[in-house]
């Protein structure tokens, strides 16, 4: 009887221990779930902060003439004082945004688990972070203008890096979208849906190219616009031919989406031409209602924020190892990369507000207008097409290289 009682006591102790372990596991899972929700919610707060700073930069650029009377920061410019002070104001706000998100980048890098203190800093402590934001935005207004002008030169490079990251993210998304809807020949229904979905992109791209000729080629002297549109059409045809080649065989969906993206970049580049040019759509719209300009400006602001936000949360695209298993207590996205993209995004929106030109003329309610903006978008379009074509061709070249190596090995073995 004593032995049976001892066994019963041991069983009860084991059961109690198991119950305690299960309770601790459930508690840990609940805590992880709460922290993960806070982390996912925090990224939207950072997006709102970035959006508010964009609006502040716009307000200082278009309506900040009185600030220039108090703060003399026009010595580093080569144009008239009013326009110069507006550009310097945008760059100062951009520096403040860059400082804030770079501080967040340094303080959250290498965070991997939800229970780390750095995760709590990223997802909480908002009063302290708002204070740091306020100081970061105000501090650049007391920096000498020559240093601000130097930052403007550096911001061009940072904005270019941001465009490259955004471009890679877009291409990876297109590749994933294509592999999802057109995975292989065994899933005929999904492949049929993918083929059906590719048609609107091809029709839209073709119609867009055709429509741009009468819209933006008012006469035969608009040779640059003719070149931009015609070269976009050539890239469209080349990508389609390469993707349908028997050795590539990547389908039509990804090429259709990429073609639509290139047509959009071409259209946006032509729209950025300065109004002083006779072929510019800006000059053709003079005298029309200003509400279209306001709506276009607000849409452009939202597009900047969305581009920065979507690139920031897409850290998996830039990982060297993409086969890592996500643990339950891992952070949902990489905080360091997220804040680094936002710091580069601060340089990007500064370039858009000043038209990538530190010495040009600025017009109210305008964004990303000027020859510098036009050529940045055109080069971005050509670079995007080059990267996409390389992604199509590189697997074939790699396979041919492997086959050549194996063939040489077989020849060596047979000769020996």
TrEMBL record:
Instruction: Output the InterPro entries linked to this UniProt entry.
Output: TDE1/TMS
Q: Which UniProt keywords apply?
A: Membrane, Transmembrane, Transmembrane helix
Q: From the Swiss-Prot or TrEMBL record, give the protein name.
A: Protein-binding activity modulator
**Gene Ontology CC terms, in alphabetical order:** membrane
Q: How does it sit in the membrane?
A: Multi-pass membrane protein
Record-annotated membrane-spanning stretches: 44-61, 89-107, 128-148, 154-177, 189-211, 223-244, 251-270, 290-313, 333-354, 374-393
User: Where does this protein chiefly localize?
Assistant: membrane
Q: Does the keyword Membrane apply?
A: yes
Compartmental location: Membrane
Family designation: Belongs to the TDE1 family.
Top-rank lineage group of the source organism: Eukaryota
